[in-house]
From TrEMBL, chain A:
Annotated family: Belongs to the amidase family. GatA subfamily.
Keywords: ATP-binding, Ligase, Nucleotide-binding, Protein biosynthesis
UniProt source species: Terrabacter tumescens
Pfam family, one: Amidase
Source superkingdom: Bacteria
Domain Amidase: 29-477
Protein name: Glutamyl-tRNA(Gln) amidotransferase subunit A
Description of how the protein assembles with itself and partners: Heterotrimer of A, B and C subunits.
Active-site feature positions: K84 (charge relay system), S159 (charge relay system), S183 (acyl-ester intermediate)
Automatic annotation (TrEMBL), chain B:
Domain Asn/Gln amidotransferase span(s) in chain numbering: 363-514
Biological role stated in the UniProt entry: Allows the formation of correctly charged Asn-tRNA(Asn) or Gln-tRNA(Gln) through the transamidation of misacylated Asp-tRNA(Asn) or Glu-tRNA(Gln) in organisms which lack either or both of asparaginyl-tRNA or glutaminyl-tRNA synthetases. The reaction takes place in the presence of glutamine and ATP through an activated phospho-Asp-tRNA(Asn) or phospho-Glu-tRNA(Gln).
Family listed: Belongs to the GatB/GatE family. GatB subfamily.
Catalytically driven reaction(s): L-glutamyl-tRNA(Gln) + L-glutamine + ATP + H2O = L-glutaminyl-tRNA(Gln) + L-glutamate + ADP + phosphate + H(+); L-aspartyl-tRNA(Asn) + L-glutamine + ATP + H2O = L-asparaginyl-tRNA(Asn) + L-glutamate + ADP + phosphate + 2 H(+)
Pfam families linked: GatB_N, GatB_Yqey
UniProt cross-references to NCBIfam families, sorted A to Z: gatB, PRK05477.1-2, PRK05477.1-3, PRK05477.1-4
Keywords, alphabetical: ATP-binding, Ligase, Nucleotide-binding, Protein biosynthesis
Enzyme class (EC, first level): ligase
Gene: gatB
Taxonomic lineage from the root: Bacteria, Bacillati, Actinomycetota, Actinomycetes, Micrococcales
Record's subunit section: Heterotrimer of A, B and C subunits.
Record-linked InterPro entries: Asn/Gln-tRNA_amidoTrfase_suB/E, Asn/Gln-tRNA_Trfase_suB/E_cat, Asn/Gln_amidotransferase, Asn/Gln_tRNA_amidoTrase-B-like, GatB, GatB_Yqey_C_2, Gln-tRNA_amidoTrfase_suB_CS, Gln_synth/guanido_kin_cat_dom
Protein name: Aspartyl/glutamyl-tRNA(Asn/Gln) amidotransferase subunit B
């Protein structure tokens, strides 16, 4: 039994859950501590788009009440959480980082949110993201970027940079994410936090505002592998409201995280992910991690996935195609922003739609809608969307071939550490390349996780290692992740995130 | 009132001399499943606007569809009844276009992988000729919401002041049934079109998958028409080899009669344009029931592109062969065979049966017979006044009778009153008038109007005696064996009795007294 730190925001979710179960603290205390932290530091980090103080405290009180009444509660009951703003929350604004949904209050909860509520996790607020999850930095949020707690001039990753920076700045012990091409894993990598993209269909997509339906997957974000597993178990499972949801129990992720055992496992290093374009410090930390896994009793081999080379190109056809259709519903007719065209007396529905979409969508969203509309057009469909689907099948074959030889695959999560805000904003291709290692998993629907691998020598910023497993074998991510995490904590003399600059002083100074 | 002006048209017979018509019919059928295609909302017609909606059918951000299995079953049964192949594996697709009554701005439909394909339906025309309509496909999709344009003269969006949208209809399961080009019908093309839609309606009703009420929009027909030069008889090989002309698609054709009229009108209109050296614009046309003409709608250019792609939010539909065969076992007797059986049960001649079928009264008669009437009486009453009036109103008999509350039980009751000797034919007609006027059941009408045959034999005998005495010449003829002359006396007896006598009985008495 671990003693909780005086500052409750520094505790892990697992430890908070233990203390709550033992009734040594209340959910209201924990929730209030995080709300105080948000008030102190979010002015610098800008992780949240909306903080639901009253709602969170009301849920905390309710769960405390249930505990007092002796109800049997879930493993994370009373532990507060931050929810990515792409998930609908009944009565709480949901913008997806877009101007076009400004002011929209959903009338229903996403299934994931329902599960969080039923499991008694007070929702602190909604986290920032690139508009409709399109980006790797949060710079495409219509409400301004979030900042990396390791260096406020740098990006916290994206699209889930709100959730990663929340965790790295101790504004919540847990957060939800969605990962279409790396939006959980890359932000985790650049902030020294943990994030899992489960098997496609492992977590319900009902209530996730869709970017690309066949690629989107919601998943858990935490500061430790165990915390992430605990949240994974709450979020996952079959949902009859999502036809693509897997009708099977959640894989034994918590058990795997607790066992943290890689002995006898075969681990494949993906030859194609990690060469040219990867920062030396990122590469060095990755190689060390692989060596550690070998020391822990795993067998490591190199594996080739030749078609990964085409993954980025295929992804940037499939994603915009689906997105162009998914985003068509934002037309000012039923909800969200409505802009009337200037200088038109009695505008038609079509003119209002056009004016609203022009004003409400940012450049990156428009770029992808245009790309997708083009790729699906008759006469181009076979060459673009059709070919991309073939590449997708080839990538899935590469994974199948690899998993016939090894139990999991590993690679650096992102090619670089966090870049500076503004550095890649004018160069979409450079921004897209940040997801080169994470995209194949989305195309094939297999699960992936990023955990911190250490700090890069050249800039002292966090690097991440990605673990990939076969579909529905999510527990393997946690076996490997937890074992490696423990070894790295030993090596670094504590969690890597402990080395992040404290933001408290600055906030206190600002508050004074 | 439609303000549209009519185009030039060519006389139909002249048009047929110069051109060969080809049709293609697309029929949309709303399934009467309890819930919508992709969500659990009810499908009831006529509910308060926007009261049968949820995040899914409103297309709210984040909502996802789940396929209604009952709708898939209905689609398969329709496919089987149309002699189609049933796909072993097929997907939904998104049809992308913007319109305010379409919540997601794409319609979840099927594109190149329909659930059912390659079938046919044999259609019997009024004279008994059978025309085989080849079915290209039947696919599943969802209905859109319904726009109501307020303030304009035509009820269309152009000129409207504002529009209202009711999303109750959004997401109701639809089956779209598409024919292959219907060739070789020649001058009978409009008749074939009507007979096809009518046969399809009967089939769908027998399958019990839809309300098939054209006036409520649960069955809607779009008629594609094109003409090509006439080079021979409709079925001549040379004629069939002539390439198809440019087609127009006439929407909003929502009664059987309109299907026939609209096709006929389009043929005459195309003919006038082509004969004048013009060319047909590929476009949608709107049918105007009141004026019987079509007007130009949306021009369909080649640029129109729905950007179909497989619906990623749904998994493929893959009915096992066992499921398909089990569903085949639930198919009702095909309407054609059923008619033959009923004709034999009822003892109707071919001509009588065709009259009944053309009047759309098969089911009514079947129910009336089941309620106790004789087949002859059921036919006589349904094809009489109710049928005449329905025609006058431009409605089918089923809809007309339902609208007035006239039921098979009423007709059986009426027939029972005649058989029991309470009413004679002319009195029964008066009673039927009363029922049609909403005065109540036949017994109630007869009671209220005081219609009843006089059962007092004394009164009848007195009247007979009086008439015989007044007509000695006629009486003598009857005594000489000219029994047919009794008719003249019966008429007078009925007059004496103010119509309230049983003519049969009067005849018996007269003959008894004079032989």
């Amino acid at each position: 039994m671990t003693d909780l730190p005086t500052d409750l925001t520094r505790a892990t979710a697992a430890d908070l859950a233990d203390a709550l179960a033992r009734k040594t603290i209340s959910s209201v205390e924990v929730t209030q501590a995080h709300l105080d932290r948000i008030a102190a530091v979010d002015g610098q980090v800008h992780s949240y788009l909306h903080v639901d103080t009253d709602g969170a405290l009301a849920q905390a009180r309710a769960v405390d009440e249930r505990r007092r009444a002796g109800e049997s509660l879930g493993a994370l009951a009373g532990v507060p959480i931050a929810v990515k703003d792409v998930m609908t929350t009944k009565g709480v604004p949901t913008t997806c980082g877009s101007r076009i949904l400004e002011g929209w209050i959903p009338p229903y909860d996403a299934t994931v949110v329902t599960k969080l509520r039923e499991s008694g996790l007070p929702i602190l607020g909604k986290t920032n993201m690139d508009e409709f999850a399109m980006g790797s930095s949060t710079e495409h949020s219509a409400y301004g970027p979030s900042h990396n707690p390791w260096d406020l001039d740098r990006i916290p990753g994206g699209s889930g940079g709100g959730s990663s920076s929340v965790l790295a700045s101790f504004q919540a012990p847990l957060a939800t994410g969605t990962d279409t091409g790396g939006s959980i894993r890359q932000p985790a990598a650049v902030t020294a936090t943990v994030g899992t993209k489960p098997t496609y269909g492992g977590v319900s997509r009902y209530g996730l505002v869709a970017l690309a339906s066949s690629l989107d997957q919601a998943g858990p974000c935490g500061r430790t592998v165990l915390d992430t597993a605990l949240l994974h178990a709450v979020m996952g499972g079959h949902d009859p409201m999502d036809s693509t949801s897997i009708d099977a129990p959640v894989p034994p992720v918590v058990e795997a995280a607790r066992a943290a055992d890689v002995r006898g496992m075969k681990i494949g290093v993906v030859k194609e992910l990690g060469g040219e374009g990867y920062q030396p410090g990122v590469r060095a930390r990755f190689d060390e991690s692989v060596a550690l896994l070998e020391e822990l009793g795993a067998e490591v081999v190199e594996v080739s996935c030749p078609n990964f080379e085409y993954a980025l190109a295929a992804y940037y056809l499939i994603l915009p195609s689906e997105a162009s259709s998914n985003l068509a519903k934002f037309d000012a007719m039923r909800y969200g922003l409505r802009v009337l065209p200037e200088g038109v007396d009695a505008p038609s529905a079509e003119q209002v739609m056009a004016a609203t979409r022009d004003a409400g969508f940012g450049d990156e969203v428009k770029r992808r809608i245009i790309l997708g509309t083009y790729a699906l057009s008759s006469g181009y469909y076979d060459a673009y969307y059709g070919s991309a689907q073939k590449v997708r099948a080839l990538i899935a074959q590469d994974f199948d071939a690899a998993y016939s030889k090894v139990d999991v695959l590993v690679s650096p999560t992102a090619p670089t550490t966090a870049f500076r805000l503004g550095d890649k904003l004018e160069d979409p291709m450079a921004m897209y390349l940040n997801d080169i290692a994470t995209i194949p998993a989305n195309l094939a629907g297999v699960p992936g996780m990023s955990i911190p691998s250490g700090l890069a020598d050249e800039d002292g910023l966090p690097a991440g290692i990605q673990i990939l497993a076969p579909a529905t074998k999510d527990e393997r991510l946690y076996s490997v992740g937890a074992a490696l995490e423990a070894a790295l904590v030993d090596r670094w003399g504590g969690p890597i995130l402990d080395r992040a600059p404290s933001l408290g002083g600055a906030a206190a100074a600002k508050g004074a | 009132m439609s303000t549209a002006t009519a185009d030039a048209v060519m006389d139909y017979d002249e048009a047929m001399g110069k051109f060969d018509p080809v049709m293609g019919l697309e029929v949309h059928v709303e399934l009467h499943t309890a819930t919508k295609m992709f969500c659990g909302c009810p499908t009831e017609f006529g509910a308060e606007p926007n009261s049968q909606v949820c995040p899914v059918c409103l297309g709210l951000p984040g909502a996802l569809p789940v396929v209604n299995e009952k709708a898939v079953e209905s689609a398969i049964r329709i496919g089987l009844a149309l002699n189609c192949e049933i796909a072993e594996w097929c997907r939904f697709a998104r049809k992308n276009y913007f319109y305010p009554d379409m919540p997601k701005n794409f319609q979840t439909s099927q594109y190149d992988e329909p659930i059912a394909f390659e079938g046919h339906l044999d259609v019997e025309l009024e004279d008994g000729t059978v025309y085989r309509v080849e079915i290209e496909r039947a696919h599943m999709e969802e209905d859109t919401g319904k726009s109501l344009h307020i303030g304009g003269a035509t009820g269309r969006i152009h000129g409207a002041d504002h529009s209202l949208v009711d999303y109750n209809r959004a997401g109701i399961p639809l089956i779209e049934i598409v024919t292959k080009p219907m060739v070789g019908a020649g001058e009978r093309a409009p008749e074939v079109a009507k007979a096809y839609v009518s046969a399809l309606r009967d089939l769908l009703r027998a399958l019990d998958v839809s309300d098939v009420k054209m006036e409520q929009g649960s069955m809607r027909c779009d008629a594609n028409v094109s003409l090509r030069p006439r080079v021979g008889a409709p079925l001549d090989e040379a004629q069939l080899a002539v390439p198809l002309g440019t087609r127009t698609e006439t929407k909003n054709v929502n009664s059987l009669r309109s299907v026939e009229r609209a096709v006929r009108y389009e043929i005459s209109r195309h003919a006038a344009i082509l004969d004048g050296g013009g060319s047909i614009l590929q476009e949608t046309r709107h049918w105007h029931e009141d004026t019987g003409i079509t007007t130009s709608g949306r021009v369909k250019s080649d640029a129109e592109d729905y950007r179909y792609f497989p619906e990623p939010d749904l998994v493929p539909v893959a009915p096992t062969r066992e499921t398909v065969e089990a569903l085949r076992g639930t198919l009702p007797e095909p309407p054609g065979l059923r008619r033959k059986r009923l004709q034999s049960d009822w003892g109707y001649s071919d001509l009588e049966m065709r009259d009944v079928v053309n009047a759309g009264a098969v089911e009514l008669i079947e129910e009336t017979v089941a309620a106790g009437a004789s087949a002859g009486a059921a036919k006589k009453w349904w094809l009489g006044e109710p049928s005449r009036r329905a025609n006058g109103e431009g409605q089918d008999i089923v809809t007309y009778a339902a609208g007035l509350g006239l039921t098979p039980a009423h007709i059986a009751e009426l027939d029972g009153l005649v058989t029991a000797g309470r009413l004679n034919d002319s009195m029964a007609r008066q009673v039927l008038d009363g029922v049609l006027a909403g005065e109540g059941t036949p017994t109630a009408v007869a009671d209220a109007r005081g219609l009843e045959l006089v059962q007092d034999d004394g009164a009848l005998e007195a009247a007979v005696d009086k008439v015989i005495e007044a007509n000695p010449d006629v009486a003598a003829k009857i005594r000489d064996g000219k029994v047919a002359a009794a008719g003249a006396l019966i008429g007078q007896v009925m007059k004496e009795m103010k119509g309230q006598a049983d003519a049969g009985k009067a005849r018996e008495l007269i003959l008894a007294k004079l032989q």
